[in-house]
Amino acid sequence: NMQTKFEFRGTGRELFKGLLKGWLLTAITFGIYLPWFLVGLIKLVAGKVTIRVGEDELNVAYTGTGGELFKRGLVGYLLSIITLGIYLPWFIVDLVKFHQSHTTAVRSDGRVFTLNSALTGGELFKTFLVNYLLTMVTFGIYAPWMMCNVQRVVLGATTIRENDRVVGTVAYTGQGGELFKTFLVGYLLTMITLGIYGFWFQVKLIAFFQRGTEITVDGLTYAGNYDATGGESLKINLLGYLLTTLTFGIYLFWYLADLLRFQLAHTSFAPKGETTGAAP
């Protein structure tokens, strides 16, 4: 069994203890502390994520710092403002590469894996520009194709490395036409049900993008799968929203832990041709 599965082992209590200080400092400093809070969040969450590949287990770790993220965020934000948004693709690529360079997955035998992107701001800018114009010209109808094209460009530039040696590639195969149908049906049913179907719609969207993602390692291609159901999503989100509201936001940390556990438990990759779960 060469399926790749994910598990989040953190608890709401751990997130509360680890993030409360950062949450308060972000509020007190009017958002200035946000980069440090985000790094703390990513570091804490990553440290609780385990990846199982067959019988092997990999532990995820994150080593970025708030200071580094603050500098990149400040420069990127200012340049995006000065250029009236034109610099935004370069800013996004810089953030992606920053987080990738500080994220590792360490296998039980000591092998260290990282993601690396060869994407450039210019490539992302061209993709955004062409697809944005087509979306505007078609009054938004082209949006599903735009989402798939951007995903294809971003994932297609990503490689998997073991100690700086390329051992795998990532690709995206989802098609805009299929996504358009999912959007159309989901939107109509959500409207008809006064928003209730939105939970099923969300699950179908996540499943669509997950199933369009393929990872090739050592010549073997793994296809993504997401087998959550709309009913499960409804329960966890409704309960989390209500308890977060009743506790004036305190339950948010437990809600986040439940969401992470739920999402990762239903996400998997398996060699193409294998069945990994039922459709939502």
How would you sum up this structure, described in words?
With 280 residues, the chain is α+β, with helices and mostly antiparallel strands. Helix content is 55%, strand content 21%. The protein has a ten-stranded antiparallel β-barrel with strand order 1-2-3-4-5-6-7-8-9-10, surrounded by five helices. Strand 4 and strand 5 form a beta hairpin.
Rg on CA atoms, Å: 20 Å
| Fraction of residues in H or I helices | 55-70%
Structural class estimated from helices and strands: alpha+beta
Intertermini distance: 23 Å
The DSSP helix count reads 10
Number of strands: 10
Order of helices and strands: EHHEEHHEEHHEEHHEEHHE
Chain-averaged pLDDT:
94
Neighbour order of strands in the largest sheet = 1-2-3-4-5-6-7-8-9-10
- Residue ranges: pLDDT <50 for 5 or more in a row? none
Using brief descriptors, characterize the structure shown.
280 residues, 10 helices, alpha+beta, 10-stranded antiparallel β-barrel
